[in-house]
Design a protein that fits this description.
Strand content: 5-15%
Number of strands: 2
Distance between the termini: 26 Å
Largest sheet: 2 strands, antiparallel
Oligomer: single chain
Helix content: 25-40%
Radius of gyration: 13 Å
């Protein structure tokens, strides 16, 4: 249950469709994660979109962007949420 457990386990807000957690790639042993869930209120196309959307955040964070999502030199919300 995303709404019940994602906040306490990952310390994230759950008022969304999922979250990509990069961590700190400069630290040895860092493991990025993404958390997605199946929204009971959405149509079947949304389920695939949600997984795809969070996976694209993962790929973007691993291979395209420097620093974290809120890194001061990276104003990237328009880029990464538009994908």
């Amino acid at each position: 249950d995303y709404g019940k457990y994602a906040g306490p386990i990952f310390d994230i807000s759950t008022n969304n469709g999922g979250m990509y957690l990069e961590g700190d790639p400069s630290k040895p042993g860092n493991i990025p994660n993404f958390v997605a869930y199946e929204a009971s209120y959405a149509n079947p196309d949304h389920f695939v979109w949600n997984l795809e959307h969070e996976y694209v955040h993962y790929l973007d964070g691993r291979f395209d962007l420097y620093g974290g999502f809120g890194h001061p030199t990276e104003k990237v919300v328009w880029w990464s949420e538009g994908i």
